[in-house]
Amino acid sequence: FKGKHMRSTIARITVTAGVVLTMAGCAGMPRSTEHPLPVVQPDHGLVYFFRESSFKGAAIQYDIRDNGDVIGALQSGTYFFENATPGKHTYTAKTEAESDVTIDVSAGKTYYVQGTISMGFFAGHPHLKLADEAEAQPALSKLDYAVKSGK
Fold it and tell me: What pLDDT digit, counting tens, does each position of 131-141 carry?
């Protein structure tokens, strides 16, 4: 009887954790199907962050930080962009695991950072990687714009 009760308790905890994570992931940034067309500024670099739609980890959202400051969030099927000052920027994403990518941003240049997710123990593990324009542009046209508050 003890083993059966323990399995039942673990199952309830697992379901509750899943519901909480799903609710947290759904309470993300507003999405827009309009695609703003930013122009790279001559004194800044333009950095796109994108995450293609995927059933795996779809309910999980993660913040993107630039040197520790939150600049946006990625949900499945979204993108956003940031005008970055020239110099080194370390962009990070964190759930129960952390991923980062460092870019030495040059003025007038455009960069693409692709976010993905893999399954972890309690939450998905984010992964960030530099992407080239040839793979990023077709993906961006299919994604919703993650509207940043105050921008």
Answer: 999 999 999 98
Alpha carbons 58 and 22: distance in angstroms, whole number: 9
Tokens 């519901």, residue located: 19
CB distance 93 to 85 below 8 Å: no
CA 54 – CA 63 distance, rounded (Å): 18
Q: How far apart are CA 117 and CA 89, in angstroms?
A: 22
Which has the closest alpha carbon to 113: 27, 49, 64?
49
DSSP 143: S
Strand order in the sheet with 87-94: 69-74, 62-66, 87-94, 98-105
Percent of the chain residues past pLDDT 70, beyond the cut: 70
Contact predicate 58/123, CB 8 Å: no
Any idea which residue has 């324009």 for tokens? 133
The strand pairing partners of 62, in sequence order, are 74
Question: Measured at the alpha carbon of residue 82, what is the angle toward residues 79 and 86, in degrees to the nearest 5?
Answer: 145
Number of neighbouring beta carbons within 10 Å of residue 79: 26
For residue 72, name the pLDDT band (cuts at 50, 70, 90). Answer: very high
